[in-house]
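User: I've been trying to design a sequence by hand for this structure and keep getting stuck. Would you show me what you'd pick, starting by listing the structure so we're on the same page?

Assistant: Good idea, let's start from the same input. This is the structure you sent:
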């Protein structure tokens, strides 16, 4: 039986040492704290790094980009060093994560056997910006343009793999999500003139809990810079909301986009998303990012219409011995 050669892995200990292309990549721009790098590992066609997960609060989260064999080698190298400190990882969708699902759940810190198999590393080429947090996203309920996308997308809000779903063996199943980025202001959307800043955090949180229970950020999350939303012109009731956040490296990232069921079909989710994206560029940003659960093709088409493109197709999995590792 032929044995595939394992990719050569190089280890880095600081951001200053990293290759320039890696510093501009999607995952690193979104998923790192500028002051925290537990380690970084590169191969000829992939990389991995461990830092703080700002959304989930995990002190050590591993992110991996690359084709299957390279990703497997990077995971082995990283987990072999990080041991039980690592709370979980985000890897390319299609990679078989079974060899590592029980990592940290037993007595030892060793990684699982095997190299993993599966599909590629998504559509990102290492030059983009934008991912979801390690615990998935809460987006995916935007509005369409009257051709049927709107109702379908909003009906599918949050219907991707749920964060932390428990499998039959008691382990957490991977959540599946896509990262997207936009490099220019979007076209003006119908209803965008109705979008205004929302400052009532209590009302925002009640709305999110009711309309989009899997929202990625709470109303008072420290990374939220502003909330925008649309209200009923007569009653003042919230109809659609979304958050403009900055990840720890300062990258613009949209989160917790949600539309009330009674207001779906009016284009308000698309209007809120467009207004949030526009805010990024008027603020001087050169890129705006978001993420949505997979599968959610209707929502993806909406974001594409606004100028977003998919950069990474990912899955995130939490490890077993999280509490002992200091994970929330």
């Amino acid at each position: 039986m032929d044995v595939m050669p394992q990719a050569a892995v190089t280890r880095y200990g600081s951001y200053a040492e990293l290759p320039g292309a890696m510093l501009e990549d999607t995952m690193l721009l979104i998923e790192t704290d500028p002051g925290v790098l537990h380690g970084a590992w590169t191969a000829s066609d992939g990389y991995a790094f461990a830092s703080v997960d700002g959304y989930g609060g995990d002190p050590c989260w591993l992110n991996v980009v690359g084709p299957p064999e390279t990703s497997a080698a990077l995971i082995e190298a990283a987990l072999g060093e990080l041991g039980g400190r690592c709370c979980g990882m985000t890897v390319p969708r299609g990679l078989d994560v079974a060899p590592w699902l029980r990592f940290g759940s037993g007595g030892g810190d060793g990684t699982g056997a095997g190299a993993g198999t599966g599909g590629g590393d998504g559509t990102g080429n290492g030059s983009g910006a934008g991912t979801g947090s390690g615990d998935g996203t809460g987006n995916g309920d935007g509005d369409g343009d009257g051709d049927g996308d709107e109702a379908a997308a909003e009906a599918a809000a949050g219907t991707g793999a749920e964060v932390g779903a428990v499998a039959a063996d008691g382990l957490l199943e991977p959540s599946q999500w896509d990262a997207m980025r936009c490099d220019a202001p979007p076209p003006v959307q119908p209803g965008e003139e109705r979008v205004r800043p929302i400052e009532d955090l209590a009302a925002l949180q009640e709305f999110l809990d009711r309309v989009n229970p899997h929202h990625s950020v709470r109303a008072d999350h420290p990374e939220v810079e502003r909330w925008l939303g649309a209200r009923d012109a007569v009653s003042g009731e919230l109809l659609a909301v979304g958050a403009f956040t900055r990840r720890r490296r300062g990258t613009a990232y949209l989160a917790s986009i949600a539309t009330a069921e009674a207001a779906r079909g009016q284009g308000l989710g698309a209007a809120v998303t467009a207004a949030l994206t526009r805010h990024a560029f008027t603020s001087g940003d050169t890129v705006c990012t978001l993420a949505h659960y997979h599968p959610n093709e209707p929502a993806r088409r909406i974001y594409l219409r606004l100028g977003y493109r998919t950069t990474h197709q990912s899955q995130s999995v939490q490890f077993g011995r999280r509490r002992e590792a200091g994970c929330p």
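That's my pick for every position. To get oriented when you compare it with your attempt: The longest strand covers residues 308-318. Residues 106-137, 140-170 have pLDDT under 50 and may be disordered.
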